């Protein structure tokens, strides 16, 4: 799923959420994909049909069948040509005829979404768009087999590919309300697909000889996209009218929404337990996986907080409150989201960790290192974070150490103007916060002492630094 030869750098514009993948049609029936061109369910069967590309599939137009067979080739050029030919044929042929190949297409579609070549994935969605427009309501019997991978595809790491995936959904289900209705209808199938994805290994992604680095890249992208799909799925069921859900214009809760929410909770609880609170993903060598794992944790903390209990809170607290060892700035936005929400939602968790080891040493280093390059994201979050730190911890020494390490992290010679402005704005906000919340100290004398110490200490440091710089 990475860049092909000759490509520029991989796009970093991974979508954090998208319009929900759902069906326009509320049909609850799901026709079995049996007897169409040697396919049963999600597997291709060996039949007596000739292996020649020109041999027709059973009940399927021979020209369409020929191109469908070519989608299984390893060569991306062959797959691209086959997809382009199918996209053209879907525009030319009758919808009833095209509907016959949906079972075969569904099988190849799932595989193509994991393809290493981004152009193949983009062309797959363009072909999907033409197919759903052509077949119309005949898509309904096959909707449940498609919805899981369709939802997953919305979170492709390449922006052009994810946009193509969104366009295919919008072409099939232009009405927001209908998309949500059918999305609710396919709740089980979507969760099942995501659950299977989280069990993937690099070796299970391909049945052919693929370079190890390509397999690793495909695996990391698949896991990251799956985690983001899961996080947004949870957000959707519990925040139907939020900005991130994609359904903020819907006034009334759809029918069966409560049932779907209960199903979502059941699946989510199982996934949270089976994957050890997603903490292993936080240790991944791939930053996209780590960032997606933070997003997933945030969604659980926000919408299903009861999964965090006395049995696992110590482990989760150590990982979340100790997250300041994360050095990749691409992860810091989702990291801060998880940290801020967790600290606010579970203030008692601070008492369950070794504060010096798990938090303070890492946090001070994070500040001294200019937040490892995420100044524009991290500096504005500091004052919000201070507000969640328990009063027993945020005493005089804590604030003095905080400002000392924050000041030590400035680097006027290597910082941009925007970074310097963000630094001084954050410094001012945190300084005022500390003065206004000096009452967190136990005695009045501590309040006065803290205020005086902050003013004197910081002015001396500021004056000395300006003289040297």
From TrEMBL:
Report the Gene3D superfamilies cross-referenced here. Leucine-rich Repeat Variant
UniProt entry tagged with the keyword Transferase: yes
Pull one GO CC term from this UniProt entry. RQC complex
Task: Give the record's pathway.
Answer: Protein modification; protein ubiquitination
Name the Pfam families on file: Ltn1_1st (PF22958)
Instruction: List the catalytic activities from the record.
Output: S-ubiquitinyl-[E2 ubiquitin-conjugating enzyme]-L-cysteine + [acceptor protein]-L-lysine = [E2 ubiquitin-conjugating enzyme]-L-cysteine + N(6)-ubiquitinyl-[acceptor protein]-L-lysine
GO BP: rescue of stalled ribosome; ribosome-associated ubiquitin-dependent protein catabolic process
User: What EC number(s) does its UniProt record assign?
Assistant: 2.3.2.27
Q: Which domain of life is it from?
A: Eukaryota
- Domain E3 ubiquitin-protein ligase listerin N-terminal as annotated: residue spans: 61-388
| The protein's role, per its UniProt record | E3 ubiquitin-protein ligase. Component of the ribosome quality control complex (RQC), a ribosome-associated complex that mediates ubiquitination and extraction of incompletely synthesized nascent chains for proteasomal degradation.
**Family assignment from sequence similarity:** Belongs to the LTN1 family.
What does the record note on quaternary structure? Component of the ribosome quality control complex (RQC).
What protein does this entry describe?
Answer: E3 ubiquitin-protein ligase listerin
| Taxonomic source organism | Linum tenue
